[in-house]
């Protein structure tokens, strides 16, 4: 199953020492219970304090998540030439291995990036290859429909918690038929424990509005270098750069990364919700106090995305748009 054959150019580092035992690490990650009557307030606090939280009691079944995970595992087990036929290089979507983006980032990872086209049911023309279509189509469609609905529910609850009117002030950015939505399937192959840890996905923030991650039960994700205990039946949600701007810095787009140091492979699936390309990304007037000024200069999602995709993972992309 492992297709990555040359780890020598991937950053090696000593096995990270946990400064806190896993139980304490878990205590640092806010948990939002979607069933709770105070869910809206919990969401706002988590987005303000860390920009990242674990979401429990959502309505997406484990079975639906596992169906897509199973298809992803089958896909990643295919010979390289078949995976490459899905669109090698992942530009703008398709299969990629080791290289992340176009600015020289590498990681111990292979992945499938899928641009989701809302006009044409749920999958874009990026699914160029029949193999993927046959493997994935039904599991993907089901998952995408469910996770997009969840993203919109969260954004509506967040709007409620912030006292924003109308309630769809944020979710409409993802509901638009031209919204820029991406689904990413990541596979971090297992490694011999004796060979130390490596970077799976280098530190970065996500450029979009919201990211919703589900992984199997393998460790690896770190938020501000706190290891996040995996939980295959929950989602992990993070604020993206665009939501930080929409809230004029009140919500935090948090740095995260994946370190792989495991005998078990990690499979994650992440939904990235972005606005239509022509959408202006600016602080929502209803959230601004009297006399408060935007921390950012005006830009569209198209401009921001172009800048983001021309930057390295570690770069602080928002800084380029801050007013000084
Ligand atoms: C190095 C890069 C990969 C990335 C585009 C970028 O130039 C900087 C942002 C990266 C990121 C992080 C979140 C998502 O995984 C992603 C798809 C995105 O929208 O921005 C990736 C980009 C990618 O893998 O192409
Ligand atoms: O695969 C993961 O667990 C996280 C990956 C990630 O942060 C990303 O794809 O943007
Ligand atoms: Fe990310």
From TrEMBL:
SUPFAM superfamilies cross-referenced by the UniProt entry: Clavaminate synthase-like
Gene3D superfamilies documented for this protein: B-lactam Antibiotic, Isopenicillin N Synthase, Chain
Keywords: Iron, Metal-binding, Oxidoreductase
Family: Belongs to the iron/ascorbate-dependent oxidoreductase family.
Official protein name in the record: Gibberellin 2-beta-dioxygenase
Cofactors, names only: L-ascorbate
Organism: Platanthera guangdongensis
Pfam hit, one: 2OG-FeII_Oxy
Gene name tied to this protein: GA2OX1
PROSITE patterns hit by this protein: FE2OG_OXY
Positions of the Fe2OG dioxygenase domain: 178-275
């Amino acid at each position: 199953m492992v297709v990555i054959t040359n780890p020598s150019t991937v950053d090696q580092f000593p096995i990270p020492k946990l400064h806190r035992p896993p139980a304490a690490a878990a205590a640092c990650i806010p948990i939002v219970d979607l069933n709770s009557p105070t869910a809206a307030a919990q969401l706002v606090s988590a987005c303000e304090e860390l920009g990242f939280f674990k979401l429990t009691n959502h309505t997406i079944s484990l079975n639906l998540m596992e169906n897509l995970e199973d298809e992803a595992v089958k896909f990643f087990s295919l010979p390289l030439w078949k995976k490459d036929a899905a669109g090698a290089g992942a530009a703008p979507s398709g299969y990629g291995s080791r290289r992340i983006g176009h600015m020289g980032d590498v990681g111990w990872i292979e992945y499938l990036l899928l641009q989701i086209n809302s006009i044409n049911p749920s999958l874009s023309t990026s699914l160029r290859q029949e193999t993927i279509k046959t493997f994935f189509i039904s599991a993907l469609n089901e998952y995408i429909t469910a996770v997009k609905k969840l993203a919109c529910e969260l954004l509506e609850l967040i709007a409620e918690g912030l006292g924003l009117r109308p309630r769809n002030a944020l979710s409409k950015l993802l509901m638009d038929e031209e919204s820029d939505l991406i689904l990413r399937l990541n596979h971090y192959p297992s490694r011999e424990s004796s060979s130390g840890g490596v970077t799976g996905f280098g530190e970065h923030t996500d450029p979009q509005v919201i990211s919703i991650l589900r992984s199997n039960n393998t460790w690896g994700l770190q938020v501000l270098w706190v290891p996040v205990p995996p939980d295959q039946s929950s989602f992990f949600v993070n604020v993206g750069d665009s939501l930080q701007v929409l809230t004029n810095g009140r919500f935090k787009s948090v740095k995260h990364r994946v370190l792989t140091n495991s005998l078990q492979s990690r499979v994650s699936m992440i939904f990235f919700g972005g606005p239509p390309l022509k959408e202006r990304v600016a602080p929502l007037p209803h959230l601004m106090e009297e006399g408060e000024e935007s921390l950012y200069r005006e830009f569209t999602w198209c401009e921001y995305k172009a800048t983001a995709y021309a930057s390295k993972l570690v770069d602080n992309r928002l800084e380029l748009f801050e007013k000084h």
